[in-house]
Amino acid sequence: MTPLGGLGSVDTREAVGRIGATDVLDALSEYRAAETAMLRRTRPIMDRGATDVLALRYVREATLRGDGMRPTELSALLGLSSASITALIDRLVSGGVVVREPHPSDRRASILRSTGLSETAEVQALDDARRPIANLIESLDRDELGTVFGFLVRMRHAMDEVARG
């Protein structure tokens, strides 16, 4: 039995036929609250606030894609003002987990990239704290993984569109 949105404690396989869009939105809202609480609980591990952790995650993903990220993109994704994003980036740079590089084609802009430090001990400690989540994911079969992954990718694109306005 698993809590599922506004449906209470239910067997998710039996509930699939009764789930509507509102139930999915409720479940996403509950998930978001749980994720925010988890970020607060794991903050001491990384010695960073929840917004810093999320910013580092975005910059790390962009770095892994080979793109890096403009501060304005990060600001839009996080919904932060120019002054707030500057302070956040300064914290990440001074912590050695992000570097600013000159933008290759725009002299006035910079690109943010994660560093090797962002992949070391603090990330391992956070991964250990998130072990229950990894265990759940590992318990999914191939079809379930594909469905969840596809949904999350599409949701993220939709949320990014909202953030971009």
Describe the fold and architecture.
This protein has 3 domains: 1-46, no CATH class; 48-115, Arc Repressor Mutant, subunit A (Orthogonal Bundle); 130-165. Helix 4 packs across helix 5 (82-94). The termini are far apart. It is 65% helix and 8% strand. It is built from 8 helices and 4 strands. The protein is globular. With 165 residues, it is mainly α. The model is unreliable at 1-10 (pLDDT under 50).
Q: What's the architecture of the largest domain in CATH terms?
A: Orthogonal Bundle
Write down the domain tally: 3
Kindly provide the radius of gyration, computed on alpha-carbon positions and rounded to a whole number of angstroms.
18 Å
Distance between the termini: 39 Å
Poorly predicted residue ranges? 1-10
Mean pLDDT: 80
| Largest sheet geometry | 2 strands, antiparallel
Helix % is 55-70%
State the CATH topology of the largest domain: Arc Repressor Mutant, subunit A
Number of strands: 4
User: What structural class do helix, strand and pairing data support?
Assistant: mainly alpha
The succession of helices and strands, N to C, reads: EEHHHHHEEHHH
The number of distinct helices, counting runs of at least 4 residues, comes to 8
Keywords: DNA-binding
GO biological process, one term: response to stress
GO molecular function: DNA binding; DNA-binding transcription factor activity
InterPro entries: HTH_MarR-typ, MarR/SlyA-like, WH-like_DNA-bd_sf, WH_DNA-bd_sf
